[in-house]
Amino acid sequence: MTLDQVFSFGIIGAVIALLIWDRLRYDLVGMLALLGSVALGIVPAKEAFQGFSDDIVIIVGSALVVSAAVGRSGVVEAAMRPLAARMTTLWAQVFVLAGAVTLLSAIVKNIGALAIFMPIALQIARRTGTPVSMLLMPMAFGSLLGGLMTLVGTSPNIIVSRLRVEMTGEPFHMFDFTPVGLVIALAGVAFLTVGYRLLPKGRAAASGPAFSIDDYTAEALLPQGSPFVGRTVAELEAFADGEVTIAAIVRENYRRYVPSAHWVLFAGDILVLEADTQALAAVVKRAGLRMVHEKELEGGESRDDIAVVEAVVEQRSRLIGQSIEEVQLRERYGANLLALSRRGRPIRQRLRRVRLQAGDLVVIQCRQSGMAEILAALGCLPLAERDLAIGRVPKRAAAVAVLALTVTLVATGMVPVTIAFFGAAVAMTVLKVVSLREAYDAVEWPILVLLGSLIPVSETLRTTGGTELIAGFLSQAAQNLPPVGALALILVAAMAVTPFLNNAATVLVMAPIGASLATHLGLRPDAFLMAVAVGAGCDFLTPIGHQCNTLVMGPGGYRFGDYWRLGLPLSILVVVLGTAAISLFWPLTQH
Fold it and tell me: Where is the RCK C-terminal domain (predicted)?
């Protein structure tokens, strides 16, 4: 072993150790590894930052913006609305929700697909009495399975495609992953549809769920132009599919009435609505209502700079014991209170006079540029990072058109993947499906920094001959195995490493090793690269190996060990079917 190989293995080993230790952020670990590699001379100084200009970084960043745009467009919620009422049985709920997340994850980032469907799942759980723990983990696992089906579904596929260019001169294309990914995804969703029974039933979610399913009280003005002027309370409630209740009507600025179903609505009425945030957003938009406290905020650069966030009032909050009038929420903090929820209990007072309590859930409108500072000053903890589209018109047609055009251009090979997705991200902002600020916020900058830093570091394994050394050891271990056994060995190795490394880092390390092992055994490298991508994309055993698993842990009330219950049999299924499908569609030997 040469000194450069020692340095390369030492840096990679330090990266793995630091990521397992989990005291430093993974992007900082990547930067330290890059600096260490330059200092030791295994990465030339002039090549140190080439990773940041790599196509991988552009594709991943652009895909995140496109995913955010699809989520904010509301097209998924609109498509799911007719199905939601029909999902009355538990197995149907698991099948439809896990299947829908799986399908969407093939064309948008899997974490984005899961975030889009979680509010839908929680509304269904509340309406039907289904334990939410039965739904969320199957959806998280479905999002990982769906990412296997296309080039842009998950970061490992993008990275493997880039590494294939270096090794064979030809990248994987958009749907090269589909035959293998589709087999695994179909079998995986079928298993999840019955396997959810392995999960704990009825366990309460952790305190402060990431997505509130409580009812909010909000006040909305019925303007002159609304189609519901002159119609009855019952008609408006029926229009909202029974998900919104008109708890009271305020007239003449101060008289508060509890209406009967036959009451006629007049222009200028202030309607006190009780609903969850998604239903509230939908009825405000569709019925032409206007939130009472939704007024222009001073200092906002434009309408696109205004955001709506759901937050919980913490124990230390200065809002406790005060009303928004007393605290001067708009004048002092530049924020509006749009809705309030108090553990499902109805709010009898006007919102501006309610004295807030610890644990209250609030919907606050403020400048997006100052959201973090405003919430910190108020002592409010933001819940999941989702914008509530109250009073905002989603641009569904534009989002669908841009996404369809992008997929078509990539699938036909008319435009390189990098250009297509970068163009799609730009188009989403130009068409105002997302604002520029939302686009920047959608990008996971730590992931891009990790990728840019580790690309030249991982290259040192190849340039120093380290991959050949490891491949030699693995080929000795696999010499008594059939070619399919060697393929399964690489898939299992990638799957085993992923919970401890970021899946992008796993591919950067394991893909060259897999290709070198194939060369040592006289086999084609494509199948081994595909096995690395599948293994790195399938972490079902822990809540920390992938963001999707982490996202559902709190709302589902899961414990660390719960992931093994459903994840272990699913992992075995992926290894068996994945190995067979890869060897079928990507032959191991030359014909």
Answer: 203-289, 295-381
